[in-house]
Amino acid sequence: MNLTRQRVEEVFDKVLKYSTAEETEATVSANSFALTRFANNTIHQNVAEEGASLSVRVVSEGRMARASTNKLDEASIRQLCEDVLALARLQPPDPQLLPMPGPQTYRALGRYFNETAQLTPQTRAETVAKVLERAEKDGLTAAGVFSSGAGAYGLFNSRGMKAYHEETSSEFSVTMMSDSSSGWAKKTAPYWMELDPTELAERAAQKALASRQPREVQPGRYTVILEPSAMLDLLGFLILDFGGLAVHEQRSCFTGRVGQKVFGENINFRDDVFHPLQTGAPFDGEGIPRQRVLLVEKGEVKNLVYSRQSAHKLGAQPTGHGFPLPNEYPEAPINIVMDGDRSNVDEMIRSTQRGLLVTRFWYIREVDPYKKILTGMTRDGTFMIEDGKISYGVRNLRFNQSIIDMLGQIEMMSPPQRTAGEESFEMVVPAAKIREFNFASTTKY
Amino acid sequence: MKEFATWALDTAVARGATYAEVRVMDTRQRYLSTKNGQPSQVRDSQSLGLGVRVIADGSWGFASTDALTRHDVDRTAALAVEIARASSLAKKQAVHLVPEEKILDNWVAPCKIDPFSIPVSTCLELLLKIDAELRAVSGVTVAEAAMDFRRIEQLFVSSLGSEIYQLKTQTGTGYAATSFFESEIQRRSYPNSFGGQYQTKGYELVEELNLLQSARRIAEESVALHKAEQCPAGEKDIILDSSQLGLQIHESVGHPIELDRVLGTEANFAGMSFLTLDKLGSLQYASDIVSIVADATPAHGPGLGTFAYDDEGVPAQCTPIIQCGQFVGYLSSRETAAAIGRQRSSGAMRAEGWNRIPLIRMTNVSILPGTWKLDDLFADTDDGIYMETNRSWSIDDRRYNFQFGTEIGWEIKGGKKTRMLKNPSYGGITTDFWNSCDAICGPQYWTLWGTPNCGKGQPMQTMGTGHGASPARFRKVQVGVAYPG
Asked: B339 touching A, CB under 8 A?
């Protein structure tokens, strides 16, 4: 990745040179990414990519359009500027369109690590080889990924706004399988040394070994202990509902519920890009500084998030949660931190007479957008708890559960931790013990 | 394109690749949408780059770049070889591919009207007319409409000597009315949910769909659903409309037949498959009236899974998947075909873009039409529900246990389609469900639906797939399963 703030400024200067629109915004981004994938105890995929792109948004006579390219030579930039203006002029004016924002001030966030950016395919392969050794020690089959990448982007506009951010990312995810069971663990971090692949492999292996020969249990309402990844992937379905315009347009589950106690007394959510376990840039898709927003306090929906455009329309203040314009779904909190408590999963298990421990969920989809009923399956490590102990692995189950109701049924929580799943982006969430979680059917493994 | 591709191929081979393939892809997209009386998104994008996939020291490596200079292309090809050598550090056995022929060809998918030639103002005018029609119905709270055009141009070259140029134009369009009332959100979409209909066609698709004609009815149904009865819970006969049956095929037939899932290489992410190798040729997958094919050939129609050659340079094929109820075929790559002792790949390797490796993906996985007329099927059903247009979908990671919801249902009593039902849902186990199919409507109802957003792989790739289907009936299915009692 060769993008620097200076390079962004050079590209932006060319955009300004060729754009004849009243207002012009340019986003220049570049990334490099590499991923080693393994399965059947061997590396079967090993890839690397690099790329850069320029996206230009113009406003002309109350009309807006966006065009993007990954060709950054002068002729392509000139052509892009001409094309995007032509696109804008072919549409009716929007009387509510705001002028672009001027210069902003941002708090610096250090989320770029050279060790991650420079991770080599050899190091990834050697790390994977150790994980495969762990699998083979117990006759398990391992599958997973080890990836790393670096990205940078600058968002500049003709009113003098200049925002720039760079960040690294890494991920290790592993599934361990026996002939009748599986276990899974995953972690992501800007600094790859925090991943600890060996610990993740051990955790996944122990889950696979402990859930061998799973038994079928009857569907019904169970006390469940959801590990953080299971919590995360459910909570991810709430983020769009916290958008100010979503509530105004009556497509949010919080329509008519803002200011009301919707969840249990022990539920607190905030959006906080500055939290030390969070990732991301200190500005939104229009360059507005991100703010900390208290979303839910003691179960009551306290605040929503607003893009600049939605805030103007609805008489609110922008919170720095807008997506790049134009966008029909303009805002959402994407740095959720859910408060937890002082318990831990072992204590939750000991306190449970009969219940289920869930490692993760799979293929979650929204069944009812206002009741917020979700459906999905358990996967890679579901266990029966009896008399305060894990008794045996169980075959996977399908749930149909309102997560609004679920967040009123939480009895215990761990401290929150940075958590990765597969159905939502990363958040900082706790494990939780929840009563009367509804399972509707079972599957065959 | 050819110059870049040749540089990369030569460098990869010179660096020691025993097999190399290069794809140069140039993708252009235009997305236009309206919402509640205003243009919402008006955007164009273009992406050009090159990907190099090699085998060196018996392992795979892949690298890609959009910096198309001689230096960067050579560097990328060399990196692909270096990555392959790193892969061999954790190798169990060398990669083996089934043979393939050298192919030199150009193929351009039929496109009557270039969608990029239609003025944006013309497209927006139609979308805003639809929008106005939707919002003319009292109770509609959000009206949305969109058009999505893509032109995908690619050159594939390989160390086998193949050189294949393909150009595809794809069009998608649709709209939806959302209605909030009291404590309920209802939504109706046309011609399908989650973006509408997508095909490998030009702007002629927009004209064929008569979008405006159905807008008032769709809006009225979104509002009427609030007063409809809840879909009952229990065991019923169900008739699925063709779009919902298309998604049922996608999830419960299309994904489990992907041989990479079967062989375990998607175990950490997309999951595996219940269709283990012992089931090929022995499993009664469905009732004997059901035959399903995976057909990428242009003769099957303008599906999102239609092409002339896959991204390994293998010619498009029609692969029987279910023949008269029997499970008979998988989707494969050259490597997985070799792993199960086949002589040739079924040609299902597809990559999302220049920066992604090809994966085994569905082509057009379609059920062959039956002979029933829809009205006759209603008349032949004593106690059932007709379900239209998908609202939710979920299936386990081996593709046994599924649950679907649809936007609207209609009760069928004594052979007549009667009252509207809201929040319909059904669920079951894949093979039980397909074996309960006892009637399929005829070719006049058969539509080749496009699913533009099928996700798979790490890093994630989104791919368009096609699914031809006619309405069909399934006996004694659990309905109303999505709403906890």
From this structure: no
